[in-house]
Every structure is written in C-alpha cells, then in structure tokens.
Amino acid sequence: MKIEDKRQIINSIMEQEIQENDLNISSFSFGRLGYYNSYYFWNKLKANKLYNPAQILTLSALPFLNGVSRKKSKEIVVFYNDIPTPFFEDSIVRLLKTTYHELYHALDDARENDYSFDMFANTCDRFIVSHSPIDSIKYFLTSKGHDSFMFEILANNYGIKRAEEYIEKNNISINNYEKNKLQKLKQKYELQYQNYDLTKRLDMIINDYKVCLNCKDFDNKIFSLFLNDDSSVKNLNKVFIDENVLSLDTRILKSFLKSKKIKESLNNIKLSEEALLNIEKILDNNKSEEINDNNRKTI
C-alpha cells in the first residue's frame, strides 16, 4: 500500500468520526520515520522549555506505538510504516483497527455521567492504572497487561469491529491471512471482554477506600452506595432495597456482591425478606451461588 493511501485512509476516517460525533479534538497521522521531521514533534519539543528528559523520551518513543490518544491535550495520533522495506509493510486490518481504536478512546473521554457496566469498569481501571505503581508498570510495559484493562478491551473490540465494517462497506479485498487474522482478533478481544473480572478491581479499591476518597479523580458515586466514608459496609438491608442501588447494571451489583468485604458483611447479618429477594433476583434465582444457613444463600 502506498504511503499516501495509508495517510488518506487514516485521515478521512478520523475527520469523519470527529465530525459525526462532535468531538473537540485534533487528529494527526505520521509515518514512523517522518514523525521525527514533523512540525508536531519539533513544536512539542520546543514547548518543553525545561527539557524534561522523561518528556523528551516519551515524545521520541511515540512512533514505536501504533497510535496514542491524549485526553489532556485533546488529540489523537496514528502511526503508519514509511520505512522502505517489505518487512515493515502495514496491513489494512492493522491500520483500520488502530485508527478506530484511538478514536474510541476519544469517544470514551467525551462521555459524562455514564454508569453502565462497561463505563464503570472503565473508570475503575483508569483510576487503578493512575494510582497503582504495579498496575501502571503492567499497563505501560507489557502487551498482555496493557490489553487487560477495560478501557483497552473496549477500544480493541470497537477497533476490530469497525475495521471489519469498513472493509465490507468499501469492498476492500484482503487475502486469507488477513481474513483469518481479523477473525482471530475478534475472538480474542471478545473473550477478553467476557473473562473480565470487575470484582478484583473492586476489592483493590475497597481495600484502600479511605485513601481513594482523598483523590480528586476518584468517582465515588457508586461506591458510596455500599460504603461509609470510614470504609465500613453500609447496612445491606437498606442498601438492597434502595432504588438507586437496584437500578444499577446487574453485572455491577453481582460484582459488588462477590467482593470480599461485602461477602463478609452478608455473612454477619440476617437479611430481611425484601433485601434477600432482591439479592436473589440479582443473582438469577440462585443459579450461580451456593445456599447459606443464615440467608439461604452465600453471596
């Protein structure tokens, strides 16, 4: 594929998506080599007046990524190969997937007051990556770790599905290798989504809940329905008759019910009939949990 064709496909998709979704962002596409001779790179470098080594290293390393979305500066950048050798040739699937992947991050950043399962898990993971050194290292330094967080899982799924739609809509011919690769990626990303465990994230945050409350970027709206400010669990007989709780996505409720601290609290109280009935409905009439002597159910 010619370099100009790559640039045209990437730019046309970004321009269309930004316009259709009314996104207030800037978009850029660069060849991996051409990037270092671009106004973008040198302007960013000049803007770094203190010449912070970490920032310079970050700027210089960007072409080693497929793309990047930056919420703070409201921009997305997609890279393509401009190295004159067949060993570094782009595939149309990768180009499309990367472009839509980065656009998803921009769409994600523009969302407000969305407390669906996906967006709540997304918010939890972003907070964890920002405040947990171990998870931050895992996210930035390992491919497997990077793709294990919900905001990347959602972007990967969106990217590969939109890539497939683009190929079909524009009657683009791809060889069998690319077709198989596309299907394998779809299956891989869907499996990652299905296997995602929100409860592990909740346990991490709940364990350090009092510390989290002091963080400006911590969204406490849902957690505050279950926890007091001292990190103790609220009266679950009241919690599970509260319409604000019961109106949450069932998958969020199930994840909280499986969290260590909520389970311990459930095992130490006698549930009212109303609260117990609501919990049984959440857990799909005891199909996935065991019976409990005190409450007829172990959550």
Structure commentary:
By secondary structure, the protein is mostly helical. Helix content is 58%, strand content 5%. The protein contains 17 helices and three strands. It has helices at residues 3-20, 39-47, 53-61, 92-110, 117-131, 133-141, 143-146, 150-169, 176-194, 198-207, 209-212, 223-226, 236-239, 243-246, 250-258, 260-266, 273-282; strands spanning 26-31, 67-70, 75-80. It has a three-stranded mixed sheet, covered by helices on one side. A hairpin with a 4-residue loop joins strand 2 and strand 3. The protein is elongated and about 70 Å long. Mean pLDDT is 90; it is low at 285-294.
Report a brief summary of the structure.
The protein is mainly α.
Write the layout of secondary structure elements.
Layout: H1 3-20, E1 26-31, H2 39-47, H3 53-61, E2 67-70, E3 75-80, H4 92-110, H5 117-131, H6 133-141, H7 143-146, H8 150-169, H9 176-194, H10 198-207, H11 209-212, H12 223-226, H13 236-239, H14 243-246, H15 250-258, H16 260-266, H17 273-282
Parallel strand pairs: 1-3
Antiparallel strand pairs: 2-3
Helix pairs in contact: 1-4, 4-8, 5-6, 5-10, 8-9
DSSP helical segment count:
17
Radius of gyration: 23 Å
List unreliable stretches of 5+ residues: 285-294
Mean pLDDT: 90
Please report the total strand number as a whole number.
3
Judging from the principal axes of the Cα atoms, what is the shape?
elongated
User: Can you write the helix and strand succession as a string?
Assistant: HEHHEEHHHHHHHHHHHHHH
From the helix content, strand content and strand pairing, which structural class follows? mainly alpha
Binned strand content = 5-15%
Relative helix content: 55-70%
The major β-sheet equals:
3 strands, mixed
* End-to-end gap: 55 Å
Strands in their spatial order, largest beta sheet: 1-3-2
